[in-house]
Amino acid sequence: MFMTLAGAMRHGGAGAVARGNDPAGQVHGICTTGANLEEDIFNLVAHNHYERVPNYRNLSDAEEVALRERGMNRVTDTCIPEEEAMRRIERQVLKLWQKADQENSGTSRTNSCTS
């Protein structure tokens, strides 16, 4: 049996629910989004800079804006620091992307963005 779930597994506890609802071991695979992988990579490089927001359900608009202006991207009760996590990864991926583009510049390819 193969189970398909929408959204990240960890935040809603869907992983535990899926495991708990398969006592006979009949689910052989679970298909879900890559959100967990993305978050795990960010957490790997920036976990010391994450912030918890225990009262996230009660934040005012001004408090939400203040978090955003500090570069903190809130995901429910956790703020992921944009510069320490996302931009740090982005800089490395961009280098790899540019290198691959340079290496492939001699090959024929179609660019749908040009006229």
Q: What does this protein look like?
A:
- By secondary structure, this protein is α+β, with helices and mostly antiparallel strands.
- The protein folds into two domains: 33 residues, no CATH class; 69 residues, no CATH class.
- 43% of the residues lie in helices and 14% in strands.
- The protein is built from four helices and five strands; from the N terminus they run E-H-E-H-E-H-E-E-H.
- Strands 3-5-4 form a three-stranded antiparallel sheet. The chain has a two-stranded parallel sheet with strand order 1-2.
- The longest helix has 22 residues.
- The protein is flat, with a radius of gyration of 20 Å.
- The termini are far apart.
Q: Give me the number of helical elements.
A: 4
**pLDDT < 50 stretches:** none
Helix content bin: 40-55%
Cα-based radius of gyration, to the nearest Å: 20 Å
Strand content: 5-15%
Spatial strand order of the main sheet: 3-5-4
The SSE order reads: EHEHEHEEH
**N-to-C span:** 47 Å
Q: Give the biggest sheet.
A: 3 strands, antiparallel
Write down the domain tally: 2
Q: Find the structural class using helix and strand composition.
A: alpha+beta
